[in-house]
């Protein structure tokens, strides 16, 4: 049973659950909400062609056992600097304080590759011991060679060495994620 718990504007307002939590983050439009829907096989997270759709922290309860969090996207050009900084601060606050967070999935569009905003977030996680795993999205699309950047574990101590490749559209690479999260 999958339940939408709610949309939360601040980290403080998040419900204080004991459930293990798995969070999805990445640049705006990378496909966070689509991937969550594909994993749970339900259209529960709102998706959109308009970047910046998810602006609050959206929580989903999976079988009263696990929480999935759809985090707001970053790197969206049409957001004011003040808002962008405020959101970044909120993301960092979430990552530093949410003790039940088991793993952060940092999504990267396979056509684009990692951008500075992704690398900055990875550095933040490395410096603060926040365990994360890189998930490439939209693998069904044609990929240009130069987007393939090697992300080495040596430079990223908090990164899980296994990089995942997925397509929400073609339902590719989902089982591995389901196994990690513990969703059937
Ligand atoms: N081809 C393809 N398109 C995808 C895939 N996943 C998502 N998309 C498309 O990418 C766009 C953005 O998807 P969302 O899931 O809303 O992205 P998001 O990261 O949640 O975006 P924000 O909430 O705005 O930050 C939509 O038009 C999706 O249809 C995929 O696996 N393949
Ligand atoms: Mg979204």
* SS class: alpha/beta
Kindly give the count of domains.
1
Strand content: 15-25%
CATH-derived topology:
Rossmann fold
- What's the architecture in CATH terms? 3-Layer(aba) Sandwich
Tell me the span between the first and last alpha carbons. 11 Å
State the CATH class.
Alpha Beta
CATH homology group: P-loop containing nucleotide triphosphate hydrolases
Main β-sheet, spatial strand arrangement: 1-3-4-2-5-6-7
- Could you spell the SSE succession in H and E letters? EEHEEHEHEEH
Instruction: Give the count of helical stretches.
Output: 4
Helix percent band: 25-40%
Write a brief structural summary.
The chain is built from 4 helices and 7 strands, in the order ββαββαβαββα. With 184 residues, it is α/β, with parallel strands linked by helices. A hairpin with a 3-residue loop joins strand 3 and strand 4 (66-70).
Q: What key attributes describe this structure?
A:
4 helices; about 25% helix; alpha/beta; about 180 residues; about 25% strand; globular; binds magnesium ion; Rossmann fold; seven-stranded mixed sheet; single chain
């Amino acid at each position: 049973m999958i339940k939408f718990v709610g949309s939360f504007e601040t980290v403080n307002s998040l419900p204080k659950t004991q459930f293990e939590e798995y969070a999805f983050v990445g640049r705006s439009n990378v496909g966070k909400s689509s991937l969550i829907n594909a994993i749970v096989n339900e259209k529960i997270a709102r998706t959109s062609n308009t970047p910046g759709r998810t602006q609050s922290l959206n929580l989903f309860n999976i079988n009263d056992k696990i929480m999935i969090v759809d985090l707001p996207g970053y790197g969206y050009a049409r957001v004011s600097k003040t808002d962008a900084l405020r959101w970044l601060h909120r993301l960092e606050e979430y990552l530093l304080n949410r003790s039940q967070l088991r793993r952060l999935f940092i999504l990267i569009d396979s056509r684009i590759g990692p951008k500075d905003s992704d690398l900055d977030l990875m550095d933040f996680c490395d410096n603060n011991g926040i365990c994360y795993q890189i998930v490439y999205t939209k693998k069904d699309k044609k990929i240009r060679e130069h987007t393939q950047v090697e992300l080495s574990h040596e430079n990223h101590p908090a990164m899980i060495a296994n990089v995942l490749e997925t397509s929400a559209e073609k339902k590719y690479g989902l089982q591995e994620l389901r196994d990690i999260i513990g969703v059937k």
